[in-house]
Amino acid sequence: MNETEVETMSIVKADRVQLGMIELAPEDVIARGASIAKALAKVIKDRQLYKEIRGRTHVMVEGWTTLGAIVGIMPRERDVKLLTAEQSLNGDPGYEAYVELVRVSDGQVIGGASAVCTIGEKNWSGRDEYAVRSMAITRATGKAFRLSLSWIMQLAGFDPTPAEEMPYTETLEHKATASPKAVNAGTKKPTTTSTAGTETPKIPTKIPTKIPARLPSWPAAYVKELIAQGLAENPQNAMSILVLSEFEITEPLQNVIRWAKIYRARRYDGMDTDMAANTARDEYENSQ
Length: 288
Known about the structure:
The chain is α+β, with helices and mostly antiparallel strands. It is built from seven helices and nine strands. It is globular and about 55 Å long. The chain starts with 16 loop residues before the first strand and ends with a helix.
């Protein structure tokens, strides 16, 4: 190239758009998003993967990860760090997590977000450390999907803010760690059964480390549904999971499945059986 020549560059309009693992023409993106939203809405409603908060319907993280699975995007925990009181904006210690979104087809990182959970929050004061850490990861997961795919969630008819990011309007009673003084009047109480004049929580505080030799007679439909949804490998595994849930056998199937989905997700996070069961129960109760 001599001094009188000028190099020119042109902007080429992309003729394909990547939506997760789905490659589309730009004009087809909205139509495909609407189709995905319709299928997604049915799953979220059928499985009750949402929570009504202040008159709006907010989807829980399981609904957001379902959306990710549909388009071929999976969350991956990149970093979790402890926040001291000095590092936290509200002056309370806790955890900050960063979760990135990975495209399954090629492993490319295509998004991500950070989120925090501190013991200064109304529903997390006095909670076990692992539960606070886990909620930070859960919030970061929902937020990462929200930043990338909230438009599809809105097309499905839901509020774009994940349920875990919303402040709850009432304090839930946490049997394992919450101080009785921290529970406000009118707080929703856990279901209890009375024995000899005393009340025992329906879901015990601790998960047994050993499965009892004699398993309760859970309905066959519960075992079949756990296997059908990929939450258990076989009938024996399904029965073990049901025992770990510490629900009574009269518990509605949809509640047991919701707990089992959280439990399985925490096992995939690398938690051992006891910790995953405890964390799943905490998150399940917090979503009620």
